[in-house]
Amino acid sequence: MDKLFVIKIGGNVIDDENSLSILLKQFASIDGKKILVHGGGKLATRLAAKMEIPQQMVDGRRITDAETLKIVTMVYAGYINKNIVAQLQSQACNAIGLCGADAGLILAHKRQHPTIDFGFVGDVDTVNAVILKTLLDQSIAVVIAPITHDEKGQLLNTNADTIAQEIAKAMSNSYETHLIYTFEKAGVLLDVTDENSVIPRIDPIYYKKLKEPVDGHSRIFAGMIPKLDNAFAAVDSGVKEVIIGKAEQLKELIAGKAGTTISND
Amino acid sequence: MDKLFVIKIGGNVIDDENSLSILLKQFASIDGKKILVHGGGKLATRLAAKMEIPQQMVDGRRITDAETLKIVTMVYAGYINKNIVAQLQSQACNAIGLCGADAGLILAHKRQHPTIDFGFVGDVDTVNAVILKTLLDQSIAVVIAPITHDEKGQLLNTNADTIAQEIAKAMSNSYETHLIYTFEKAGVLLDVTDENSVIPRIDPIYYKKLKEPVDGHSRIFAGMIPKLDNAFAAVDSGVKEVIIGKAEQLKELIAGKAGTTISND
Hints:
Two copies of one chain form a homodimer.
Chain A: E1 3-9, H1 11-14, H2 17-28, E2 33-38, H3 42-50, E3 57-58, E4 61-62, H4 66-90, E5 95-98, E6 106-110, E7 122-127, H5 129-136, E8 141-144, E9 147-149, E10 155-157, H6 160-171, E11 176-183, E12 201-202, H7 204-211, E13 213-214, E14 217-218, H8 225-236, E15 241-246, H9 250-254, E16 260-262
Helix pairs in contact in A: 3-4, 6-8
């Protein structure tokens, strides 16, 4: 099977022109099939402020009302997505920018919650692997904005981490799929205050050990546990490995020379 | 050769939710291969006003400065494009929304003018017919936003009429291509004050006659002449026919039952 890299980049990279440029150069130079999933960044928040659209947070989550959906559609699927594509084209990387409505790529439904109305937030149902395969097999890199649709004409704001994971899972029947999450740290740290304490590899046995409480606390930062649970869910669903690390080190992450690799092997 | 319909819709349709919905239903029901090229509409102007970005007009043309480019990228390639795609998906029409940077679809260069700096306005160089053919041959309808790129990382604001024409020309080697321009009138009128005076067919001989001055004026409205010159340029470059008429009558336009058909036959 051919290798496929599914790479998720977050707002911190998108907001920093220089970091983004470094990341995209490294992405362009990856040999083989690749998908980039990007998040939002601060532009949407700034635009909402400028347009005097109040941003509602409930339980630490942003509510997507109709006006906010308009903004994230413009910023994520328009401005950010097309600028990434144009930059990749300038690096001789033939890229195509899509959102989840395009070619029926990601079908989702409006989030149901017993007490909170999240508005136009979507949870993923299915990924159309066929269209992705068609594009990848023509040596086109796919850049995906975190906007999905419900097949009834409604666009939905969807978590980019989840999109990356669902795409990696859906593609793992066709490719040896490597899912890379970039964030602000160099990887999963044994000591959250020490950037040099990156754990290079975590398998299920070691993960169990890491979660065991020492003096009432797990050995790794509690905030990492949902990320790692998701990573193991991905490898359990056929993804070859999940790599977590710094965006600026993308090349090293892919080569297994930086970050933390999560796998069942 | 298979038939291909390239349909351009303008701002007047996009700004009217009801007209757009009617148009998209008719577009979805077209049997066979189809491309929709859309223009802008008033949302970009409203957003620029809200964001206090002054819009500069020189010689009746809008100057695209960096901030205006940001807005048209967000509105055209983001909001309008993705909402059209989502609506088509809800009509069981599998559509994909692209701008000219995506998959290197439309290469352009910054407009050169001896005295006016148009800013980030692009004039079309080439159309990538291969990627369009790949998508069309998978029964995917392509929705195109009037944003192009220069292959050096720069997005460019580009006239949607020109994009529709260049795409139709590029595709006419592979398909029997029909180019449809929708606008606010029912077609080319013999008497501009009478909507019932639509000329059903214009060939080069008749066109010459229509342009002959009677009492110092051409027989057709002078404003139509550049449109018709472009239409004949398209048919001279291999496009089967150009049809001009009302967006709400798309079905009739395609069936040759409304509007004005321009061809060399």
